[in-house]
Amino acid sequence: MNRFVVVSAAVFLLISVAYLPLLNDLYWSSLKSLIPPVRVVADLVVRNGTIFTSDDTSFPFSDSMAIRNGRILKVGNFSTLKDFVGDGTMELNLEGKVVVPGLIDSHVHLISGGLQMAQVGLRGVRQKDEFCKMVKDAVQKAKEGSWILGGGWNNDFWGGELPSASWIDEISPRNPLWLTRMDGHMALANSLTLRIAGVTSLTEDPVGGTIMRMPSGEPTGLLIDAAMELVTPYVQEVSVDERREALLRATKYALSRGVTTVIDLGRYYPGTTDELSWKDFQDVYLWADSSKKMMIRTCLFFPITTWSRLLDLKLQKGPVLSEWLYLGGVKAFIDGSLGSNSALFYKEYLDTPNNYGLEVMDPEKLSNLTMAADKSGLQVAIHAIGDKANDMILDMYESVAAANGDRDRRLRIEHAQHLAPGSADRFGQLHVVASVQPDHMLDDADTAPTKLGFGRAEKESYLFQSLLNGKALVAFGSDWPVADINPLNSIRTAVKRIPPKWNHAWIPSECISFTDALTAHTISAARAAFLDYHLGSLSPGKLADFVVLSTNSWDDFSEDCSASVLATYVGGMQMYP
Ligand SMILES: *[C@@H]1O[C@H](CO)[C@@H](O)[C@H](O)[C@H]1NC(C)=O
Ligand SMILES: *[C@@H]1O[C@H](CO)[C@@H](O)[C@H](O)[C@H]1NC(C)=O
Ligand SMILES: *[C@@H]1O[C@H](CO)[C@@H](O)[C@H](O)[C@H]1NC(C)=O
């Protein structure tokens, strides 16, 4: 090749490179003048409100928001959104109303909740007579021989006496009864049910469970924690259709409370089989998703014993099955509940001497399962209520992280209800999520001191501010159907901590700010389930889930935490009313 050609080619190249930015500009500006700009037109513009975004990287408030294809285009003052308004843009004028991001409930048992709505509802029953009357009414309506299921009772409401089969045997000679306590850790069987399940004075207490007995050794009908498994295999199977209806019923109810996303921890009795969560997934959730019946977003957790099955599914399908259905992690239990005196404590219960609570699973087995599930990359959530149970899980999580190496794992403790001195700080230090349920304190405030002693109850219970001080990620939930699903109430409870019939806060130093409480039901709840890429705040690119409230004043709302849900939008579509 000729030297001249090589040199001039090199010079040309150099000049071109030097002028590339300029050429580029010229090129683009000439092109732009030829093609009209592509305009992004919003499907919906929400305006003239007080929109709280829960987005800590931008303005917390704005007055308008533009939405397209179910996602947020932009949040800002109306003047900055005008460009998105075009043919076909719908407008929602909020007339000053307050809007918050769709509320996320970090811990529910959605199908159990929906089923319970159709069963004997004993929540709030205040007397033995009323209890018996409701059961009697249900028996009269039921077919002879069919199972009668119900739940929600709380013996603390009538002074503490535990119900027994003798309360209900006469009114239910031919129908087996199975009535769970509101916390799901205890259930009452009538004598017919005990007979069907073969539970007698000779039956030994299973590991992790207690059969309540009369002095003669005869069972009273009450079965605690793992002892419930003696009966659950015999309880009439709920049909697929009933479970599907339960999901739809539960969904509608949740939407009416402003809930747009739930983390579903599966069926709520420790006694239910691990297989049931998978059956619900296949028969109910996949059915609802494929037949376009999902109306709230659901992230599912599965029993820890089935972790490899979940792993296979996630490897095959990824964590996002659809805009509605997300695969979360695995769930386990270490202890029971305070109400059933089965939460695990360092010191004995004052009202049942020598009782420290129960380990409902062998800790070594649980640790092995957690180690394996975590190593595979799955998120782990473990139920721990008593102070000792919480420390056991914190220790276990610490060794799991040390063994499996640094990772953004967001290990969760569900409930984290009673924490020994210093333990609240460990959540932040170890990056363990505190998945807590403020409304449970309304049930526990009167009884915790009688069970734990006043000093211990005051130092250890529902330490939300301490957890936040320790920089823990705190996510709120209801544990529905254990408590009602009602995030606005749970926010109020966390801020005020005033139990029914009290006129002052329970442990005032643990009251948290309104913004912190709202954060715990929105962006923190999303982070706690690895959903924050899609959900949790009103930010560009995220799903357009939001709730219109009945108030026009942010100041009033944040002051007395009282407002009701006027409308719930999921993906920019009005789902309630
Ligand atoms: C909206 O406008 C108000 C005052 O007109 C201003 O204070 C606020 O910062 C603006 N918000 C955004 C998101 O630009
Ligand atoms: C915004 O809402 C207020 C009520 O708070 C109403 O008076 C006003 O007319 C509305 N503005 C627009 C532009 O719709
Ligand atoms: C837990 O794992 C260890 C080490 O693999 C094993 O030796 C032990 O038997 C396991 N324990 C249980 C209860 O599975």
Automatic annotation (TrEMBL):
Pfam families per UniProt: Amidohydro_3
One MF term in the entry's GO annotations: hydrolase activity, acting on carbon-nitrogen (but not peptide) bonds
Protein name as it appears in the record: Amidohydrolase 3 domain-containing protein
Domain named Amidohydrolase: residues: 92-575
Biological classification of the source: Eukaryota, Viridiplantae, Streptophyta, Embryophyta, Tracheophyta
SUPFAM superfamilies xrefs: Composite domain of metallo-dependent hydrolases, Metallo-dependent hydrolases
Residues forming coiled coils: none
Organism of origin: Arabis alpina
